[in-house]
Amino acid sequence: MADWPSSLPEPSVTPAKHRKGQVKAPFKAGYVHSHAAETRAREAWELSWDGLSQAHLNTLFTFFDANIGGTFNWTWAADSVTYVVRFAGDEIKYDYIGKASGEYEVSLSLEEN
């Protein structure tokens, strides 16, 4: 299993989410029956960088392309726990912010496996 690239700067992580799915079945009488859809809760994170260099962006693209659809190890700095995660979406959002050094605003989502 791959590890998150250690060469990337630490991202901002907002918001972290604690999720556990449920199944809901509404009835005509107006009440709802529900139960847990999963046996355990999972964490999810939104990662962002403000000022990622072109070289770091290329590293992120390479890692994304190699690991999309799979799982990898990622350590959240806030709790120092290493999670087995996957990319939650099919994209990395990025925008050139026009600084002379050629930096980008970048964001992506991770979810616990």
Spans of at least 5 consecutive residues with low confidence = none
Sheet bearing the most strands, described? 8 strands, mixed
Distance between the ends:
13 Å
Class computed from helices, strands and strand pairing: mainly beta
Global Rg: 18 Å
Number of helical segments with 4 or more residues: 1
Helix content: 10-25%
- What's the CATH architecture name? Beta Barrel
Measured by DSSP, the beta-strand proportion falls in over 45%
CATH class: Mainly Beta
| CATH fold group | Elongation Factor Tu (Ef-tu), domain 3
| Global shape | elongated
Q: Any descriptors?
A:
113 residues; mainly beta; Elongation Factor Tu (Ef-tu), domain 3; eight-stranded mixed β-sheet; two-stranded antiparallel ribbon; elongated
Question: What would you note in describing this structure?
Answer:
- The radius of gyration is 18 Å and the shape is elongated.
- The two termini are 13 Å apart.
- The model has no long low-confidence stretch (mean pLDDT 92).
- A hairpin with a 5-residue loop joins β4 (22-26) and β5.
- The strands form 2 sheets. Strands 1, 2, 3, 6, 7, 8, 9 and 10 form an 8-stranded mixed beta sheet that branches.
- With 113 residues, the chain is mainly β.
- The protein has one helix at residues 54-67; strands at residues 2-3, 12-13, 17-19, 22-26, 32-36, 42-52, 72-76, 81-87, 93-96, 104-112.
- The protein has 1 helix and 10 strands.
- It has a single domain, classed as Elongation Factor Tu (Ef-tu), domain 3 (Beta Barrel), CATH 2.40.30.
Summarize it.
The chain has 113 residues and is mostly beta strands. It contains one helix and ten strands.
